[in-house]
Design brief:
7 strands; alpha+beta; 373 residues; 60% helix; five-stranded mixed beta sheet
């Protein structure tokens, strides 16, 4: 019987979010106190100027005898009114100083909203380096960088995905026209139909990956948790890709015992299919793909390695980003979705994934908890 359970990693995520919220609240409190202090100083200056003005007028004899003709209440009211007037005048002309970073922030936010993701806030003004304003500036710049990066990935994805979709569609249309003309031998007809079938499956695979990614990204609760044989599932994933590794004459080395885990069986199946498919894709003809499963303290680790081109160190942190491809020439099939799905599914299960490239061997290690309690 399936059951729904909360994500094991949610407390960590909540702690990180809570720390960010506390830091933001502290910065906002500091900013509020700073503005309040500025207003207080302005009002204090206004009161000081008023008192000074009264003494000057009294010293000049303009309001001589003020103490005898006006009682204390009148003096207080007079000074209060003058102080408020002076305070508002001084505040009106000086408030631009502390509010200038805020005006700059609003201006840059408007530019960001209009699609200018290259906009950045800089250190300008006497208060720009204050921790409160600096925190706001750094947060804005980080947001702009993330949006710019996402926009670049989106643009690359549209271009790459359009190319990936166009190629099989053109092939299908071309072979369909040849079949429509007739006058083909039986071998030609079968070959064309086989190509149409393969290209159709390729389109279906890409569309399914996009739909799966969208579905998984919107999923926050790990549902349909069951206990199943992980070893058997990995072997099944290998068999599903037999046509690919068989065509390249890949030597598969599977050496592991039987292990069971708790999780969403269908989601984890996508993990092994994507990782094995990647290992086969980037292996040279007649190469080797190694699969191993080991047990830890309450965990199980699946390792999938292949000989072939190594992932550059500067690209290691980006390979799990959606739509990202290490092969910028697009000489190999793919659309940068598979590893994004893998990472998201593993996160949902409270596991981890790491990649290591050494001596011409690229290895992905997936560690999962044995249970989902």
């Amino acid at each position: 019987m399936s059951k729904k359970k909360k994500l094991p990693h949610i407390p960590e995520l909540s702690a990180r979010v809570l720390n960010h919220v506390k830091a933001d609240r502290k910065r906002l409190t500091t900013l509020t106190l700073l503005l309040a202090l500025f207003v207080f100083c302005i009002l204090l200056a206004a009161i000081g100027l008023t008192v000074l003005g009264v003494f000057i007028l009294q010293w000049a004899g303009v309001i001589s005898g003020l103490d005898e003709e006006m009682d204390m209440a009148a003096i207080v009211i007079f000074m209060s009114v003058i102080s408020l007037i002076l305070g508002w005048v001084l505040l009106f002309f000086s408030i631009r100083i502390p509010l200038k970073p805020i005006h700059t922030l609003v201006s840059h936010m408007n530019r960001l909203a209009m699609g200018d993701f290259e906009t950045r806030m800089e250190n300008k003004g006497m208060l720009a380096n204050h921790p409160a304003f600096k925190g706001i500036r750094d947060s804005f710049n980080k947001l702009a960088e993330e949006l710019e990066h996402t926009e670049m990935l989106r643009g690359d994805f549209i271009n790459n995905f359009s190319h990936e979709f166009k190629t099989p569609i053109v092939s299908i249309a071309g072979f369909a026209k040849l079949l429509k003309r007739g006058n083909l031998t039986e071998d030609q007809r079968i070959a064309y139909l086989t190509s149409i079938e393969e290209e159709s499956m390729r389109l279906s695979y890409m569309a399914t990956n996009v739909l799966n990614l969208t579905k998984i990204e919107n999923q926050t609760i790990l549902s349909e948790v069951t206990e199943f044989n992980l070893s058997e599932q990995v072997r099944s994933a290998v068999l599903l890709l037999e046509s690919k590794w068989g065509e390249k004459n890949i030597d598969l080395q599977l050496d592991f015992d039987e292990y069971t885990v708790e999780g969403n069986e269908e989601l984890l199946k996508q993990v092994w299919i994507n990782l094995v498919d990647n290992a086969v894709k980037f292996s040279p003809r007649c190469g080797t793909v190694i699969l191993d499963i080991t047990e830890g303290a309450g965990t199980v680790t699946v390792t999938i390695g292949n000989a072939g081109p190594e992932i550059p160190p500067e690209k290691m942190d980006k390979i799990f980003n959606k739509f990202y491809q290490t092969d910028e020439s697009h000489a190999t099939e793919g659309n940068g979705i598979g590893l994004a799905i893998v990472k998201r599914v593993i996160d949902l299960h409270g596991g981890t994934i790491s990649v290591n490239c050494k001596d011409g061997l690229t290895t992905f290690a997936v560690t999962l908890p044995r249970g989902q309690n």
